[in-house]
Amino acid sequence: MGPGPRRIVVVGYGIAGLTAADSLRAGGFDGDLTVVGEERHHPYSRPALSKSALVESGDMTAHELPAPTHDAFERLGVAATGLDAQRRVVALADGGELPYDGLVIASGSRAARLADRLPVADDVDELVLRTVDDALLLRDRVQGQPSVVVVGGGPLGMEVASGCLAAGCDVTVVAQGRPLTRLLGPFLAELFVAAGLRRGLRVTTAAAVRVRSQGGLSVVELADGSTVSGDLLISAVGDVPNTGWLVSSGLLAGDDLVVDSRGRVRPDVVAAGDVCAFPTPQGVRRIPLWTSAIEQSKVAALGLLRGDEAAELDYQPYFWTEQFGLNFKSVGVMPVAGPPELIEGDPGDAAALMRWRFADGAASAAALNYRIPVPRLRRLATAQAVG
Amino acid sequence: MKITVDRVKCEGHGLCEEAAPSLMHLDDEGDLVIDVETVTEQGDVDAALAAARVCPVAALRVA
User: Fold this and answer.
1) Exposure pattern of A132-154 as b/e (b: 16+ CB <10 Å)?
2) Yes or no: is domain A114-235 CATH 3.50.50.60?
């Protein structure tokens, strides 16, 4: 390799930072590598936090990822607080500085909070689920089977609602519009909502406008004038990229960190994972999902080492969720409108292999309670129209 | 080192196969088959660990 970077700093130690570090080594980088992680934990499986981890007992070590082999210097429990992209120095919360000649920004995102968008009384305890510490706290709090209000009808909100229901709680989801519809489209969304309702979930489709506390309960006031109350308030209203430390770096476009098709912000700085937006056929966007972070990180690591000679990102949408007894995997662009072509089974019987074909020749495929190797699902999603 | 899969946890996402195709694959039913259970060479060990790390349900162990 040519006169590439000799000293690389990776900021962020979720699956994006970890994959980037691994990929740098796999790509031949043998210089100094430092990884900075804000959490005190080693990388863990984030998708599990809102699924099995919520209802399992025991510690969270089962969800830890195996020890890394990238031989990097690890700085855990310290946040990056600033970046001087001209001097090529990352500033740390402990006052330290890390010089680099190649930088990977993988600082991820944090949970958005209701308090950022609407009036929430100071004495309201708004729980979120993003980190392993959040999950431990939440799991502890649902032990006594409190009544739960989940604000947010996306996949995270619905998974958390499912976990709380499984823990024996009385659960109401407050969502603007039918849950999951924006992500999956009405046909699929309704399968999950129906499964939730059968298990005793309550769903309220009105916007939350204010949250107050009364007699130990959190009271969510809705746009239609009604209220929903619970012992526990959990919000799952999206995520906010951790770009605060980049504000004066000159690297942000407005509020956004945007990379090119090789993960580059500039030649000596790449970014990957939930923190950044990247070009997709549907436009430049953030796709804060596990497999997205992995694919982006592999590309960005090589983008940093090889520049224009590195391969471009060819993002293959992959989404999965588990909730209310349904196990769902999809490949291809979502949401999908209308009912699918049934390849096997019937979603009415809660086990089906489905496909949607689009006018441009592309397709999306989904498996519901149907065990299938994902490569086969991918082939279904790329299959051209037949006979 | 030995590669083991927790069959209860494994959901057949297949990210491990992408990371270590020479060591494991998903069969036609979506079940993971470990083709090489014991890895000794550094390249294989690294691939096995990389496979375990990308598993979204942490179902793989290399020890």
Assistant:
1) bebbeebbebbeeebbbbbbbbb
2) yes
